[in-house]
Amino acid sequence: MAETVFFYLFTTLMVLSALSVVFSRRPIYSVLSLLIAMFCLAALFVMLGAYLVAALQVLLYAGAVLVLFLFVIMLLNLEPEASARMRVFTLRTTGTLAALLLFFALFGILRGAGQPTPPGAQATPGTVESVGRLIFTTYLLPFELTSFLILAAIIGAVTLAKQHSNE
């Protein structure tokens, strides 16, 4: 019952924030709405038991990519008065809620960290250990081929960039 309620809550919030990304007139608000959508998607991954994918979603997309988007928007300086209109109360409330959420998450992690795992226990699906075992046993050849493909793409991009700079 609780899973169903949280599923509908996160999906509704994600759809609303995605619509806000598309229909927002200010780019900074679009990026912040995209951040909410990314966190809702990470919450859905946690509900599915894919903890590694949820962590990567938050770290890579919500962390790195959206920060890059914010830097580009702020460097372009599209709407300087948009950030001036944000109320200090809203920022403080959001910061306080984020700090409390981080505190409770850290408390939950530290509370469960002292419990040793039994020696014969299998790794739960979706954790770093289980994904690592799959990558380096079952999917080792596709993993290595993907790394060679990425290396070839990097070499090709550098070669093309050098040719354009010499002309």
- Classify the beta-strand content into a percent band: under 5%
**Portion in helices:** over 70%
Oligomer: single chain
What is the radius of gyration?
Answer: 21 Å
Short note summarizing the structure:
The protein is 83% helix and 0% strand. The chain has helices spanning 2-23, 27-48, 51-76, 80-84, 88-113, 128-138, 140-166.
Mind explaining what this structure looks like?
α1 packs antiparallel against α2 and α2 packs antiparallel against α3. The protein has 2 domains: 98 residues, NADH-ubiquinone/plastoquinone oxidoreductase chain 6, subunit NuoJ (Four Helix Bundle (Hemerythrin (Met), subunit A), Up-down Bundle), CATH 1.20.120.1200; 41 residues. The radius of gyration is 21 Å and the shape is flat. The chain has 167 residues and is mainly α.
